[in-house]
Records
---
Amino acid sequence: MVMAIVGLQWGDEGKGKVVDLLSEGVDMVVRYQGGSNAGHTVVVGERKFVFHQLPSAALYPKDIVISGGVVLDLEGLFDEISELGSDLKASIHLDYRAHLIMPYHKLLDRLEEEKKGTLKVGTTQKGIGPAYVDKVARIGIRVSDLMDKDNFADKLSAVLDMKNAILSQVYKVKPFSFDEIYLKYLSYRDRISDIVDDATYLLLDAYNDGKEILFEGAQGALLDMSMGTYPYVTSSHPVVGGVGVEAGFPVNLIDRRIGVFKAYTTRVGEGPFPTEVEGSIEEFMRERGGEFGATTGRPRRCGWLDIPALKYAIMINGANELVVTKLDVLSGLSEIKVCVGYRVGGKVSDRFSTESAFLRGVVPEYVVLPGWSEDISRVRDFSRLPDAAKRYLGFLEDRLGVRISMVGVGPEREGILRL
Ligand code: GDP
Ligand code: IMO
Ligand code: MG
C-alpha cells in the first residue's frame, strides 16, 4: 500500500496530524518537496511537536526519508533532531540529490522580498525560493557535493563569487566569507555522512519487498509553483505528481491519494483569496482555530470553504480520498457559508483559474447552511455529531464527488472520526 497525503488549500490543512495518524502501520514515510517553510503539527497528549523538515512520523520507530526534491536547511535539521532527542524514534535517510539551503539563500529571500514592492509574496524567509532558483539555474549545491570535500570547495567558491557580487553590488550588504561557510558546512558533513542514501532505490526496493510507504506533502495544491495561484506560490510541487519528479517514485503506484482540507479556508502571505472574510467571523475562525503560522507565527487569513478551488485541487492531484480537519472550529456559528461557484459578469461557474486578476474579480456565490452550537471536540463517533454538522459534511462530499474518510474534531491524535 502506498499513500500520498497532500494539502488541497494554501497549506496548514492539518497534514501533520493526518500523517501521524496514518503512518502508524507504515514502514517508510517520505518528505518529497519543500523544506523548512513547512510546519506540521502533531499533538500527543499534552505535548505538541512541530515538524519542519523531518516527516511527521518521526515519533514512530520506522524509516523516514528526505528525498532529492527537498531543499534542506542542515542547521534547522540538526535543531529539529536535537529538540526531539529521545522522542526521535525513526531512522533517517537523506537522498544525495537534495539541495542545500545556504546562508546566502536565506539572506536573499529577505532582501528580494524587501525589494519586490508589489511583487512581494510574503514568503517564510527560509531561503526556499532562492535555493530552488539555484537548482534550476544549475548552480545549486547538493548533499552529494558536500560529501566530496574538494568538489564542495570548488563549487562553493564559484557560487559564492556570484552571490557576493549580487549582495555587495545590488543590495549593498556585507559579502559572505568563504572560510566561514566552508568550515561550518564541513562540520555539518561529518554529522550527515551516516544518513546519506539513494532514496529512489531505497523506496523502490521497499515497494518491491511489499513495504508500505507514505508520501507527506508540504504546503498545498494552491501553492504549487506551476498549478497554484502564481506568483503567490511556493517554489516546488506539493501535489501528488511531485512524488514522481521529486522522489523518483512512479506515481501510478500510489494507491491512496489523500487530499486534506480544513472545514474552512486559510492562507498566509500575499495573494488572492476569493472567500476571505473580515471582521468578527475572521476573528472567530482565527481565535478558535489558533490560526497563526506554525513556522512564522504570522496570523493566517481566514475565510469560507471554496468548492471551485477544492475541486480544482482534487482534480490536479487525482485525489481519491478526502480528510476534513478542524470541523470543531465551526461550532457556535449560527450559519456556515460555502462558496459553490464564482460569479463573473452575469455568469456563475464552478471552474477555478489561478489568475490573480480573475480571482480578485469574482464574486463568490454562497450556499448558506445551518450551523450547530454543540462542542464536538470530544465526539469520537460520527453518528454522535449534530445533524447540522453531518449535513455540512454530506453537502461537501456531494459537491466534491470524492469520499470523505476522516474528519478532524480536535488537534490531538484522538480528535478524529473515521467514516
Ligand atoms: P499542516 O501544515 O498541514 O501540518 O498544518 P499545521 O500544523 O500548520 O496547522 C494545523 C493546525 O491545526 C495545528 O495547530 C494542528 O494541531 C491543528 N489541528 C489539526 N487538526 C485539527 C482539528 O481537527 N481540530 C482542531 N481544532 N485543530 C486541528
Ligand atoms: P505547510 O507545509 C502555509 C506560503 C508562504 C508564502 C508562499 C511562499 O505547513 O502547510 P516560501 O517560503 O515557500 O517561498 O513562501 O507560500 N507557505 C506556506 N503557507 N503553509 C505552509 O507549509 C507554507 N509554506 C509556504 O506563506 O505565501
Ligand atoms: Mg503548517
---
Amino acid sequence: MAKVKKAFFCNSCGIESPKWFGRCTSCGEWSTCVEEVVSTTPSRGSSLGLSSSKRVGGNGGRAVAVQDIERSEVVRTSMSYGEVDRVLGGGLVAGSLVLIGGEPGIGKSTLALQIALHKEDYRVLYVSGEESAEQIKLRAERLGIRNNDCLILSETMVENIILQASEHTPKLLVIDSIQTLYSEKIESSPGSVSQVRECAALLLKFAKESSTPVFIIGHITKEGSIAGPKVLEHIVDVVFQFEGDSSTSYRILRSIKNRFGATSEIGVFEMRGDGLHEVSNPSEIFIPQHSEQLSGVAIGAAMEGARPYLIETQALVCATGYSVPQRSSNGFDYKRMGMLIAVLEKRLGFKLGQKDMFLNLVGGFKVADTGLDLAFVAAIISSALDVAIDDGICFAGEVGLSGEVRPAIRTIERVEEAARIGFRTIVVSSYARKSIETVVKKGRINVIYVGKVSDLARQLFSNE
Ligand code: TYD
Ligand code: MG
C-alpha cells in the first residue's frame, strides 16, 4: 500500500514546506498554510522548472552571445475577435499559456466557448470539467457555431486531456477550469494547491512541446486573486482578468500580464441573450443619455492602453448625518479620492469635512487612469454647488497636490476622441497647450486650458 505523504503549502505563493508555518517564509503572508496529501512517488515534472529548457529553447543549456541568437518571428494567430486580439497584443502566440481569471458567473466559459466556435475551420479542443458535453452543445447552439472543427471533451483528469490533445492535435486547447482538474500522480483533491500546480505544470509542458496555445480558465477568490497559488500567474505567459459589475451587462477583458504585448490593453464586451458582443467603441456606451442636465456629472476623456474613450464620472456631495462623514468610491481609487478632497479643501477653501461624498464611474468600470482626476474634481464641485455642467464639455487632466492641473498622458489622443464623439469643448491642462495647438486642427473642438483647480472653478462655475 502506498504510504500517504503529506506536505504543507502556502496558499498564496504555493511554496512547499515539510512542517506547518504561521507565516510563509517565502512571501511573508500570514495564515496561508494548508496541509495536503501528496503522493509517495515523486511526480515527474512536478517541479516548475521542468520546462525551463524548453521555454528558452535551442542551445542545450549553453550560454550564447546575444548577437548570435537567432530570432524566430513570433507568429500570431487572430482569434477573429478584434477585442480579444487587441488584449493579446495582436493575436495568439503559438505555445503560449493564457490564464483567464474572473468571478463565477461573469462569463468566462461563454467567452472561451465563443472564441472556440467563432473562427472558421480552426481545430479547437474545448475541455470542460464543469459541464457535460450536452450542456456545452446547448450553449454552443445559442452562441452560434461557425467553426465546424470544435471538439468538446468533458474530462477532469489532466493526463487524459493531454492524451486526447496529442491525438487530435488541436490548434487551440481550452481548459475550463483549472480548479476542476486533477492529476493521478497527486492524491489531494482537485482545486488544491498541489493539484493546481501540477496540472498547470503538465499543461505548460504540453503547450511548449507541441507549440499549442492553451487557454486556462481560473476562478477567483473573494480577495480577487486567482484561486490556487500565485505560482500559476508566474508560470503562464499571459494573465487576463474578465471583470464587470454583475448588475450591468458590460464586461472587460483586462490584461494583467503579457509576455508578448502591452498589459494596459482592455477589450470591452456586452453580455446579451445570445452571448458576448464586442464593443469596439466604448465611448458610445459610457456616455449618458440624460434628457436633462444633472449636477455632479462630468465626462472624462480616459485612456486605457492605446485606446481613448469617454466615460461619465459622478459625484454626490451632501451634508453628513454622522460624526464621521461617509466616503465611498466605485471604480476610482479610494486613496486618490482622499487626495482630491484634500486638494479641494486646501486650494479652493471647500469645506468638505462635514460632507458625505460618493464617487462613481458608470458601467461598473474601474480605472487607474489619473487623467480622470479633472473630471472627478469637476463632478465634485458641480455636486457641492449643485450646478450642472453643460453637456458637450469633457475633461482630461491629472491633479497634483498643490492643485495644479497636469497634462494627462496622451492628451492629444483624448482630445481627438472627444472631437470625434462630438463634444464641443474639452478642458485640459494649460501645460498641454503647445502640443495641442500644433496637432489638433483649429475649429475641430474648443479647448479650455486650466493651470490650477481654482481656474477650473472660476471658468466653469463662477457665473452662478
Ligand atoms: P458563464 O460563462 O457560465 O460564467 P463563468 O464561466 O464565468 O462562471 O456565464 C454566466 C452568465 O452569463 C450566466 O449568468 C448567464 C449569462 N449568459 C448570458 O447572458 N447570455 C448568454 O448567451 C450566455 C451563454 C450566458
Ligand atoms: Mg464557467
---
Amino acid sequence: MDCIFCKIVSGEIPSVKVYEDDRVLAFMDINPINEGHLLIIPKAHAATIHEIAEGDFLAVMSATRKLSAAVKKTLNPDGINLLQLNGKAANQVVPHLHVHIVPRWFGDGLTISQWEMVAGNMEKIKAIAEKIQREIVN
Ligand code: 5GP
Ligand code: ZN
C-alpha cells in the first residue's frame, strides 16, 4: 500500500524510532512543532479511528501513556498536548492513524488547543446528546 507510515513500519522510509512493540511504533515527527514532538502509530494500517481494531487502538493509547511519562522525565515540559486527527476536515494529512505527543511550555507561542468559548444553545446541545446516546454500541 502507498502509505508513508506503513513504509516507516516496514523500514522502507527511515525514521527516528523511540519505542516499538508487537502492535505499535513510535518515532519522532520530522516537522516538530515543539521539542520532543513524536508520533505513535499502530503497525497494522488503519486510516482513522473508524477503521482501527479496538486492540490496536488500546495498544496505541497504552504506548502513548508510557511515552508521555518518558517525555515528561526527559524534557520536563509544563504540559503535554495529545492530538489525534481523523479525516481531512479535521486536518489529518497522513491517512494512517497516529497520536501526536506535543510537549508544551508556558509562553511557547503555539496556538493548538486554543479556541474561543462561546456559550451554546442548551436545547440544541441536549438534542444532539440524546441522538448520540441512542447510537452507542457497547
Ligand atoms: P496529521 O496527519 O495529524 O496532520 O500529521 C501528520 C504528521 O506526520 C505531521 O506532523 C508531519 O510532520 C508528520 N510526517 C509526515 N511525513 C513524515 C515522515 O516521513 N516522517 C516523519 N517522521 N513524520 C512525518
Ligand atoms: Zn499505513
